[in-house]
Amino acid sequence: MNTERARLLLTCADRPGVVAAVTQLLYEQGANVVDSHQHTEPDDLRFFMRLEFDLPGLESRLPLLERAMEPVAERFGLQWRLTPAARVKRMALFVSKQDHCLQELLWLWKKGELAAHIPLVVSNHADAREVVAPFGIPLHHVPVTAETKVSAEAATLELMREHQVDLIVLARYMQILSGDFITRFGGPIINIHHSFLPAFVGANPYAQAHTRGVKLIGATAHYVTAELDAGPIIEQDVHRVGHRNAVEELVRIGRRVERTVLARAVAWHLEDRVLPHGNKTVVFA
Amino acid sequence: MNTERARLLLTCADRPGVVAAVTQLLYEQGANVVDSHQHTEPDDLRFFMRLEFDLPGLESRLPLLERAMEPVAERFGLQWRLTPAARVKRMALFVSKQDHCLQELLWLWKKGELAAHIPLVVSNHADAREVVAPFGIPLHHVPVTAETKVSAEAATLELMREHQVDLIVLARYMQILSGDFITRFGGPIINIHHSFLPAFVGANPYAQAHTRGVKLIGATAHYVTAELDAGPIIEQDVHRVGHRNAVEELVRIGRRVERTVLARAVAWHLEDRVLPHGNKTVVFA
Amino acid sequence: MNTERARLLLTCADRPGVVAAVTQLLYEQGANVVDSHQHTEPDDLRFFMRLEFDLPGLESRLPLLERAMEPVAERFGLQWRLTPAARVKRMALFVSKQDHCLQELLWLWKKGELAAHIPLVVSNHADAREVVAPFGIPLHHVPVTAETKVSAEAATLELMREHQVDLIVLARYMQILSGDFITRFGGPIINIHHSFLPAFVGANPYAQAHTRGVKLIGATAHYVTAELDAGPIIEQDVHRVGHRNAVEELVRIGRRVERTVLARAVAWHLEDRVLPHGNKTVVFA
Amino acid sequence: MNTERARLLLTCADRPGVVAAVTQLLYEQGANVVDSHQHTEPDDLRFFMRLEFDLPGLESRLPLLERAMEPVAERFGLQWRLTPAARVKRMALFVSKQDHCLQELLWLWKKGELAAHIPLVVSNHADAREVVAPFGIPLHHVPVTAETKVSAEAATLELMREHQVDLIVLARYMQILSGDFITRFGGPIINIHHSFLPAFVGANPYAQAHTRGVKLIGATAHYVTAELDAGPIIEQDVHRVGHRNAVEELVRIGRRVERTVLARAVAWHLEDRVLPHGNKTVVFA
Questions:
Q1: Chain B (9-68) residues lying within 8 Å, Cβ to Cβ, of chain D
Q2: One domain for residues B258 and B178
Q3: Which residues span the domain enclosing D106?
Q4: B268 and B184 together in one domain
Q5: In angstroms, how far is CA B152 from the centroid of its own chain?
Q6: Vertex C111, ends C108 and C116: CA angle to 5°?
Q7: Is B238 helix (H, G, I), strand (E, B) or coil?
Q8: Which of B95, B131, C49, C113 counts the highest number of beta carbons within 10 A?
Q9: What CATH number should be reported for the domain holding residue D36?
Q10: Which site among A107, A110, A268 would you substitute to test the C interface, given the most C Cβ atoms closer than 10 Å to its Cβ?
Q11: Exposed/middle/buried for residue D136 (C-beta within 10 Å: 0-12, 13-18, 19+)
């Protein structure tokens, strides 16, 4: 892990001079920009920027840098965030019975492709224990029924607090989180929906896809909002299917698409590459 | 054009012995099978088959072959159709102002990639005249307003009869055909919808896609039924987009997807490769 | 596992009447065909067919069926093979240090997506032990150096015999098998090459790809022959890359393509869907 | 055409402060940046940047802006180029008998998707006349034989000079341009090669692909250098094929890929989005 690397994310109403001011500031502070993306949304002229830079002695110089940013932020009305790459996010994985997405994320994490701590896995079933065990991550089994939903969510929320979770990833977690849970958790929640949204919202999208006779099936990774399957989309992909594919084969083919799409979305989020903008996302990948 | 080539399409409830009976019959008649596809739908055990074969002296021997099929069809409850490849379909193209799909089809047709006669192009605008002219195909300008819709459809239907049209292709024709027109025309109508159906049914799908923030845009070629954008899907494809793409760019990128998807669907239909099955299609491509 | 299901694969010079004869025979024996593919290669008019069928009491009736096939095979010059689906192949996995393909295959196998016995994993490194352990499969560590190559191959060959291995899969095994090994093993060997063959034959294909500045990277699963990376291709796929991707990222992106491509190729082979034809393959997927 | 819009392209050895200096300069001149890309090549730390901006009164203020750039360029060792968007490139299209790429480019040009003047089309055959005529562009028929190659190239070069051509696009021009021609023309030449380079260099790539039994066929748009099919790649794409596809079908399927790939590459070049870097390209699309 590069301890001198940090990321600066910012957004503001598009105004000339922002880039010059921010890059000049980083230059003066001795930072060396290694990656840079920017975008102005044509609809509302909102400006977005992500800068990745190296700064020798980052840890000790960070407060200085943050203070230097303040007048610039004031001048241009910036919303901004400065994150050392070494300060990795704490990610909780939620899963039900289908464990392919969980398995994929754990593999990639072990290979070093996902920059995160994973303090715990939460499941409403005990089945995932076997998958989780070799990775040395505790599985918290929190059963959920219609009757126990409120208390189960409270217990889950308590786990999130206790483990200081920054990000929840629903890796095929088949419970719908209440608006109350989403609000109280407060942080980002990424879900993988097993269809090309907005087609086939809700339950059994592969069965819906089979019934409609589509020629491609897809998966969508999105941030969770109170409205089901309607949050900002981070990533999508599809795979070709045909009349030979029964529903079970759509499920099997779809599993690969889900794994790929969720893994990309989570990696991008962990690297601060996804900037929400209303109900959409700007992805600097 | 191979004058000895024909296609046999058939469907029936799946019963052992069908393939043996039909292939034995063709063998006895002296036909040489050059391409063969079959499929049994797992949901309802419906069986579908397409055989392409060469038979010397096809034209004179066709009635004989058809008579020989009758007892087999009777025995297995076959719905079947025998078509000489040389008997190409008569296809009418309908277009409004956007002419990219029209151009693509005309150009492929001229290259010999679409086996059809095109006796006429119908448009509710006069703009297409320039596109159509170099191909020597008459353009019939049939303006449509809310007031004249009934008479315009009647005139259009008369044109279809007069030109003995087998197939209508809506190559970005922005009028919704009435259920009455569809019924009275009686033949297949292929439409290109500029979204990945069932996402973004109806008007302005690219604007809908932009608003929803999808990461892929698509196009769908489908048979037209009385319910808008809900008929059997023949072909679909998508292309990746991102936050950099404004709506106009989605439109531009989408045009290429539309051209590709419609061209494939029409070619398959003309070669009798698309077998409708309820609200789905079996495509033997 | 369906104990009544079997597959008939056959190839011959294309002659009218083959399909009729074979399907009639299966019908008379009481078999119910559930899947069927056929293909005539236009270059040399070679005919290929794969039939999947259910036959009640398969095990006891198989010898009868095979006897019935003999005169038909004689008459049409068929090469043919009849395999009960329940008689799954015995597959050995070979791996070096990169274990992503091994993991993918083991995981799909555990999910029931690969119909095989896996009696052993062979590696020239001990690293894979940790990956293999949770699956309960023995790892045989057979180190290979330039000096020990002959004896190592002999030991490996002995392992293959002992475990009655039908198929070897080189899941990123970085040793080149000698022509002698290939001949003496005698069975099919599937390799995953980490490029879109025939581009970038040999070592370090991602570095080669980076140097050439290609815009897509790929992977190729192929049968191994004595000539390096030149055997019949079973499956290929690619993924888009760009100037932002350093070699290490090509490697990372490529890993996903390799996993997907090898998994598809192995699954097809195990289900007898791949028919070699000279240096090419007919894939009935 | 936006007469206030311009593009600044620059490259230099990566040094801190470049972005700050350049964006500050543009800000002081009153320019409003609307699109920005930058990239540092990890291999050699070469820095690339493309800025698109609006500047009221661009035409009269351009000399001022260029003078202001000089000290910055000096300080950072910049290679740079400032181009008003309204100063569109003059593009010559070269074609032989296969006219699908020519047709595609002319269509897109007429739709306004290619920002270029097309003063002439050059062909070694007269066949393209019919395609070119409706677009009102003169076709220069310059036959080439082994004997006349030198004089034909001289005549062609003269045409380029006369029409002040900035860019030559080889839209399936089946003559190999001599190193001498390339040098003397001096400007960029884009070729479409009908394979996924570096696979299948040279003649008849589809036949080569068919012989090798690949499962994807591709096309590559690249800048022409003296070494055949070895210049910097701008864009590539592929399409899936299988055992059913005879060579003629590979050709037909490939035509669509060629059209798409060449169109993208040409559009990017015309918008100054392609920056050559050694034998590779940085594409800011």
A1: none
A2: yes
A3: 89-283
A4: yes
A5: 23
A6: 65
A7: strand
A8: B95
A9: 3.30.70.260
A10: A107
A11: exposed
